[in-house]
Each structure stands twice: as structure tokens, then as C-alpha cells.
Fold each of these.
Amino acid sequence: MDTVFELPVIEPDPTERADAARNRQRILCAAQRLFEERGVSCVSMDDVARAASVGKGTLFRRFGSRAALARAVLSERERQFQEAIIRGEPPLGPGACPQERLIAFGRGVIDMLDGHVELLLAAEDGGARFASAPYAVYRLHMTLLLREAEPACDAEFLAETLLAALGADLFVYLRDAREMPLERLKTGWAELVGRLVPVAVAAPAIAAL
Amino acid sequence: MDTVFELPVIEPDPTERADAARNRQRILCAAQRLFEERGVSCVSMDDVARAASVGKGTLFRRFGSRAALARAVLSERERQFQEAIIRGEPPLGPGACPQERLIAFGRGVIDMLDGHVELLLAAEDGGARFASAPYAVYRLHMTLLLREAEPACDAEFLAETLLAALGADLFVYLRDAREMPLERLKTGWAELVGRLVPVAVAAPAIAAL
DNA sequence: CACCAAACCGGACCTTGGTCCGCTTGATAG
DNA sequence: CTATCAAGCGGACCAAGGTCCGGTTTGGTG
């Protein structure tokens, strides 16, 4: 029952006018630079517009919201991570047993969080999290793995709740306020997954492409 | 190893001036009324101030932020729930085995969410969630139960991640966007807990829907 | 090239959460 | 009762995300 699915690649609308494309690039570069220079939370949308020499209207026309801009800046890394999940090496990619893949997935997300919390926090702002394309991919990925490992469980629900444990807001709280070291978070994730799904005894069934 | 602890009761500062107390009441009443009438998300802080015949400065002086105001409006129900947890009847209160109490706790939270999502959403807005007094109580409660049921686990970490599964934003997404019925969420929670911690004595295994 | 409609641009403008600060008032001391 | 002054008050003000719309650009068409 393994579904074939295309990951929602962000294809750069070919009918986009030249000036629009140029402005998109300008905005993305300016945003990335400013975010690195001053920290995401210290950069306003006006700042970005000004740095990109573009009107505020243009900025919002292109990206719709601050969260979406953050996502756009992250999109390349996000794409790489998805690639590693879907076609990469085990244990992250296909080949390992579901439990191992789930654990590897969580470790990967935690690493990404550790490197780009601010950006991810901005990207998940408001209700933006659940509506985002990456979230849909992660959700599907986890659902399939859970279903494979434990056909009797409510995989969809468990996937959502497990993903909640990998949210940026929780991460920043655990890391900064509760001062839990990265390793503890990763070990904790592994423990969580380990208790939820059994280790696969033998044959890793299908390689989900 | 059950720790005695005082729940952080919100004691109404006795040194508060008469006019201050009167304004607090006015604000709380107005807020509650407006929230019910028009829905939390359709009520601005200016609206509340105006309805309470109070300056905006006063409003913020008393409650500090929108999230804090929402929490204040919720505080009575919150207090009742805490009371039920700490001194109430089993399985929510003491007396039942940890697993049963954890399941009952989740069901209770889900019921509260179902009744007051908007308010809880506002209360958890921003990073306000993890800093709130109720969160600290829930966290402690779950940590103690987990530790009791499974001394070898990282109870603190697991408590945080399990609480993430009971967040208002996730709930509203699952209920409204994913259209999962309440019963499914409760059953899912029970399944999650059931897989994480063993049953105390004789055991009805999980009845996965 | 001349023309046109659609797409795009930019910045003025709106809303809203939150801050500031000069004025007012309640409680207490004398 | 009056003096005193910290606590409280209120509304002008600010920042920042997001919207609107009149003017401009682009790219295709005759």
C-alpha cells in the first residue's frame, strides 16, 4: 500500500515576467543577507524591501507573508533534506527499517533546527506551520513509516503528534530555556520512537521511492 | 517519590488599590463578554479597553499582553482542572495507575480545548505557552507520572513532547483542517500513552479504534 | 513600430499589539 | 482635614505586518 508521490517542488512559474523574476531574486538575496547579518527577528519586512530596492507591495505580492518569505529562504535546504529522505542513503533514506528511518528523520530535523531555528521559527509563525509544503511531506513520510511498522495503529494521528515534538517553538524552548543539550533531545527522540514502534525483526519490506 | 508541591495560585495582590481592582474586574468582564459575543479573534485590545471604559495603558498595565489577558479569562476553569488533577477523583486525580491518569489527563485537556480553543490559542500565542503557569503545572504533573510509571525513561523530555501533542494550534488543525473527530483524538492519545508506558497490573491492552 | 491588456510596481495607508509619560487619585501619615 | 507621593490612569505614539490602487512596464500582436 505504498503510495507513489511527487514531492511538491517549487517550480519557478515560467510565465513570470522578467522584472518580476529579477525582483524575486533581489528580495531573496537581500533577505538572506539581512537575516544572517542581524538575526531573523531583527529584520522587518520594510528592511527587506528597502535593502532589495523594492516597494513593500512588491515584496508582499511575491511572498505573501513574512512566514512565506522565511520558507522561501529555507527552501533550498529543505529541498536537500527531502531529497535525502526520499532518495538518499539509509538510515535516512530508503533501505533501513522504519524505526531506524524514523529515528534518523528526527535527528535530521533536530540538526536542521539547531542550525536555523530563527528562520524556522519565523517560517512556522502563526498557523503557517501546518499549511506549509514541507510539513505535508514530513507528515506523509512519517505516516507511511508508521503504517509500515505498525499497521494496526492510527498512523495519521501519531504522525501529527510526533511532528509536534519537532516543532521549532518547542525546540527553542527546550534548548534555550530548559537548556537541554542537543544529544539529549536526539536520544529522547530515539527513546520516544523506540517505545512507539517495535524493531523490525527481519526483512525491510519495500523501498519507498 | 511523590513530591509535595504547591500549585502556583494566582493570589490577587492585597495591596492593590481600589480603583485598580475595580478596573481589573471591569476589564475581565468586558473581555469575557466580547470574546463570547464576537469570537476571540475578532476582538482587539482597543475593543476591550473601550468596552471596559478604560485606557489602553491601563489594560496593558494590568495584564501585560493579549495572551496574558486570555489566560486571565481562562484562569477559573484552569484552576478547576488543576484542582481535579491534584485532589480530584480518579482516574484524573490520585488513586489510579499512572497510565490511566495520563490518559485521563489528555482527555481532560482535549475536552478543554474543544470548549475553548480560541481562547487557548490566544493564550498560547507567541512563546507565551511555555512560560505560562498552567504549562508548568501540567509539565510537572506529567513528569511525575511518567517517572513513576517508567523510572528508566527521560521523563522530563517525554513530558514536554507529549504536551506538545496537546497544543491548541495542533488541536485546531487536527479538528478543523484534518476534520478528525474528538473521539479519534482521544483514542489516539490513549494509544500514544499506552504504547509509551506499560499498564500497571492486570491489563486491558489498548483498544485501537 | 505602434498599440494594448495583463501583470507588475511602489508607497501611502490601515490595523493592531504594545510602550511612554505627564497628569490624577487613593491611601496613609501627621 | 490636609499634605504627600507612590500607584494608577489614559491616550498619544510607535513599529511592523499586511492591503490597496493609480500609475508603469512588459511582452505579445497586427
Amino acid sequence: MSKQVRVRFAPSPTGPLHIGGVRTALFNYLFAKKNNGVFFLRIEDTDQNRFVPGAEEYIMESLEWLGIAPDETIGKNEKFGPYKQSERKHLYKQYADELINSGNAYYAFDTAEALDLHRKQHEEQGKTFIYNWHNREKLDTSLVISAEETAKRIANGEDYVIRFKTPVDETLHLQDIIRGDVKFETNLLDDKVLFKSDGMPTYHLANIVDDHLMETSHVIRGEEWLPSMPLHILLYRAFGWEAPEFAHLPLILKPVGNGKLSKRDGDKLGFPVFPLEWTDASSIDKTVSSGYREKGFFPETVINFLALLGWNDGTEQELFSLEELVQKFDLNRVHKAGAKFDPEKNKWFNHQYLVKQNDADLAKAFAPIVAEKGFSTTLEMTKLEKIVSLIKERAHFVSEFWDLSDFFFVAPKSYDEKASKNWKEETPALMQELISVLGEITDFTSLNIETIVKDWMTKNEIGMGKVMQPFRLSLVGALKGPHLFDIVELIGKEETIQRIEKAITTL
RNA sequence: GGUCCCUUCGUCUAUCGGUUAGGACGCCAGGUUUUCAUCCUGGUAAGGGGGGUUCGAUUCCCCCAGGGACUACCA
């Protein structure tokens, strides 16, 4: 029996979760569930300067809305808690010390200013400053001074960081589930800071320590982390720990132009990049970024579309429920190349799920909009459900419902110009006749009205278009919308006749 | 600049050496519909370039080009 699958999503709370992060979380979730494993959420807030209030809650709420909430996290099954790195602060120093003692790390006293200067000077000469084997003994480190001297400087309160002592002259062949064999020369790597002068670990140290302590079996993360895989593997080795398996996901790219989709893209591209609406409290004007939820996307849409960005099951199926995804997901079928986000196809997915929703739920979602227009009391829910069932095939979002159904609530205020051309000289007389036909119908239901009206037309040899077009124009104000007799039944005999009369006088 | 990753229709993708290179979104046309939408039918459109390996390459290898990521005491 192989060991239990435990995967994590480990965002830092520097703002709202963006769509690429959501995809990473989703793939972790799918992989965990597929393998009867555990999906946990860890908050990586080792950089106190970048902490954004509300971001942590936002992340949790987003995952919950999408239906991919973690099995373990802050306040939930805290088997390996705390799940927030700032609360694990006391843990990391001892591991940094362990690396110092084993000769895998060293103290460095260089100031940020000194390093900046080095970088600038190198740049001016067209060279790149890399803090590693070739210069670490020329810099201000514990490698070149005595242990006593080092201890003294630290005791004096001098600022220092702890850097990893990258091994020399090695070619690393690393295995990535998605990319296969990836090669790195250790001589080209730099000695990353593991422990900062503010007493906090960097991402690299905290991440490895926590993944080990939390018994992470697989690290599934974005491709932007691929360059730090050698460092991470080397760290596991230095600690003598078994490393988890790695899988680096392809990036989600902007739909137009180049580059990866980023938080800064906000609403500029005409679609949300965040699952939930987010108000930037730090901005002067309290900038609001739209969210999928508020825009009327269903969680199923977001899940389905994101799952297919970089993965497919090898068949031609495109509509998947979360359960199906769990069943079929396979990391080995994840793509290597980045994928451009296609807002059009995303909308198509939402239409698919909109049509699938049951009418009662849609009516419930539509009701507040109707109420806002001032029709709350005049309508019972069953009628609203009926309306929704008639129009949903024409919509991508619930927010489009009103424009597609306003004529159910209120008579047209104007008539579509182009359509009015169908209003000919003989039309008023015909409409007058239609009124009297309608007036005599007692069973005022769609099918019955249709039968009677069509009978009347055939008996009098009146062409369909001559009646139906003006009839629709009178009720709807344009040549669009659901089956006409369904509209007639819903608005009722009296209203129908009134609207025809109004059309006769107006047109 | 350096390191690493990637490369099939406009976009998302299938193809595990031999296919008329398939599907979906979009777009166009036709049909259904009194109308719009849905739906159905059809069409549009692709293996970056150059070398190899092979009887045969989209598929395997190399080079180039292009794109991307990373290159902080940020994650």
C-alpha cells in the first residue's frame, strides 16, 4: 500500500485569489479526491509587508463557492496545524540552524544596499550578479570569518540572513509528472536566502519545512515555480527528507496579446479574473474588481472551463460535473503549454449550465431583478418559473433575463422600426378581427388559443405572416421572443387585447 | 543578458510513426421556427522553419526561430 495522497494549495494572502490560482486549487482538489487523498489549504504569509486584510477569508469563500473547499485548513481538521505560516514562525529557525550546522547553509551579513550596488555594477558591465559559489567567499559571510566572529556579530545585533550553500558541479535530473526529466546545473543556481533578517523564513524554507511536516505527497503548482524546483529538491536532500513528487501546471495566458493572466488585468479584458467580487480597500477610490459569482457565472461553469484549460480526458466530452472530473482526472494528461483564456467559450459554458438549471432556482435568482423593476407583488413564483423556462435558452446569464422578458410584465413602449414595416394597410382590420376571435375564447391556454386562431386564419384564407407578425409586434414590440401563444396565455386575454388595440392606434 | 519550460485550425484541444489530421468555441451558409434563440446539416481554418532517424514523420532526435516563466531578505 502506497502512502496516502496529501496535496495542498498554498496561496499567500496578498489579495484576491485569481483565476490561475483557482485552477491550481482545482487540480489539487481533483487529484486528491481521485486518489482518496486529502486536500489541504495552507496560508503562506511569511511576508508581513504584503499581507492584505480580508484576502484569507476571500480565498476560503471562493473555494467554498466553487465546491472545492479543503479537507484541512485553519479551523478545520487541524491535523498538522497551524495552517498559517505566521503562526508557525517559531518552527522555522531551528531548521535553518540545522542547515547551518550540517554545512548546508551560512550566515550572510551583506546589506540590501550593498547587494543592490553589486547588481547595478554588474549590470553596467553587461554581466549578471549571482550570489553563489563563485563569489560567496568574497562576500560578507560566515564562510570567511571565524565562528567566534560570527557569533559576536550576531550577538551585537547585526542584521543577517541565512543562505543556502548550493552544492557545486552537479547536474540535477529532476522528475516532473507533467514535464518529465528536467535538467539543471547546480553551478548556475544562486544561494537563495532561506531566513530573513526580520526573523521570518522565506517562501523556500517555510514551504519545504511545512510540506514535510504536513506529509505532503505531491506538490502541484504553477509553472512559475519550475525554476525553484532544484532549490527545493536540494533542500529536501540537505534535510535528509524524502521529497514529494512534483507537477508544474501550465500557465493561463491573456486572451489577447502576450503574457500570463494576472491580477492586474482586472476587468480590462472584459471578463472577471477573480472568482468573487473584490473591493480594494487600500486604493483611494476603493476600486472594485468584478467576480464570476456576481457576474452571474455558475460555479459549475468556472470549474468545467478551468478544468479543460490544460487538461482533457482524451474523449470528445466537454461538459463535466465536478464528480465526473474527480473520476476522470489524470495528471499525466495535463498539457505542457500555456493556454489562452477564451472568454467567448467561457460564456458558452455558462449558457450550457444555465439551460440545465431547474426553473425554480432560476426564478428565485430572477425574482430580485423583477422586484427591482417594481413587479414583485403582482407575480407569483409559478408564473415566473414559466417565464424563465421560456426565455432561458436565449440567455447566457440570469442578468439578461429582464431584457428578454420585460414584455411579460409591461406593454411595449415602442415598436421596433424595421419590424413595423410588416404593419400594412390591411393590418388594422385584421387585428380588429383577431381581437374578436380572441374575445370569444374561454379556455385561454396556449395550445387552445393557437388552434382557434389558426382555424380562423385557414377558414378565411389569411396568410400566417399577415397575422402573426403584427400580432407579435403588438405584444412584444419587436419580432423576437418565445412561442407567441405561450406569451398570450401568460399575459392573459385582457392584456393581449389591450396591447393589440394600442398597436392599432399607435401604428 | 542568464537559466528553464513550451510550440497542431483565430482560441481550447485529439492524435501514444502509416488518419481524407478529429472535436469544441467563434465565424459563414442552409434547414427547422410566424420571429429571436435553441436545435439539426454543411462550410471556414492547423502541424513555426531547417536538418536528420525511418520504407514512412504532426508524432522520435538535433539546430534555429518564436512565445512564456524565473532571475528580491515576494510568494
